[in-house]
């Protein structure tokens, strides 16, 4: 029985052609292909500027740096995300503070934010988890009222929308990842989007050793550059991204129909007014289910379904953070519950009808 993987990469002829073009051009580092990727990506994120960098983690760190965040500042974010979100904050010297999530969209609960602010809070950092934009209206309203910056972690949410506006267009800046398992892939890669000219300018300097023109260094910079080889993998996929996202959406509908009324299983919702791009299709295996989440996970593996747990612990509970003073350790009950219950099923665009039927059958077999 063949294994159904949780994610899949397909490199087409157009990617091969463009990569070869770059290889033959002799310009392997950042050059015209990176510029093309930025030019074509920015409008999809509803942003005036896109600045490509080496990966999504560096994108977050550079965006925070360009927004002037550093030691003594606090960034308020979700404890239920990939550790890159908080690692990037810690790399700037700032502290990480958490607010709890909602269980219906797995994103920051705007109603919990205000009580978590301190005089040092500078930035709200919502994570558009699994491909769904966080509830931005109340979050932006709070940011305006309290004079806070907003940075979106949109690593999983290329093309997702909220009230008709795309991920990447809400905050002072937003970051995307092009890692090999994300909805848009270049192996490794990242993009920062922003509508603020001076933030884009600072990002471009920061990315390239702080250099404005040859040997004119305006600030202490770094090397965060993406290469043209990587950009040449992403550019053709960008042209197909709407179609690939549509396939994810159809797969998600198929799964939700097939998994309706499984006792104890909660299927994911696309919230009203938001277009979900299904980076992950994540169910909750609750206490009422026949098996617990980990037993369901092993049962699926035995049936050839590559399910996964994103994420098994809230950030404050990882060994690396447990003793760290710059990380807040207040318990967040919804995040902890999500960590116990979530299970992501394959939803990627290359699933066949047969794969989808097998996934549904395997889950029903285990839990009905
Ligand atoms: C993948 C991811 C990142 C980091 O991106 P990399 O390209 O892997 O560095 C950051 N935040 C979230 C939510 C992610 O899923």
Question: Can you walk me through this structure?
Answer:
This protein is an alpha/beta fold and 368 residues long. Helix content is 37%, strand content 15%. It is built from 12 helices and 15 strands. It has helices at residues 13-25, 32-41, 56-66, 84-91, 110-113, 136-146, 197-207, 228-258, 293-302, 319-322, 333-341, 353-367, and strands at 49-53, 74-77, 95-98, 121-125, 149-153, 161-162, 165-166, 173-177, 190-194, 211-213, 216-217, 265-266, 274-275, 281-285, 342-345. The strands form 4 sheets. It has a 7-stranded mixed beta sheet with strand order 1-9-8-5-4-2-3, with helices on both faces. It has a 3-stranded antiparallel beta sheet with strand order 7-6-13, with no helix packed on it. Strands 12-14-15 form a 3-stranded antiparallel beta sheet. Helix 2 packs parallel to helix 8. The two termini are 22 Å apart. The model has no long low-confidence stretch (mean pLDDT 97). Residues 55-57, 81-82, 84-85, 127, 153, 155-156, 177, 179, 190 line the site of pyridoxal-5'-phosphate.
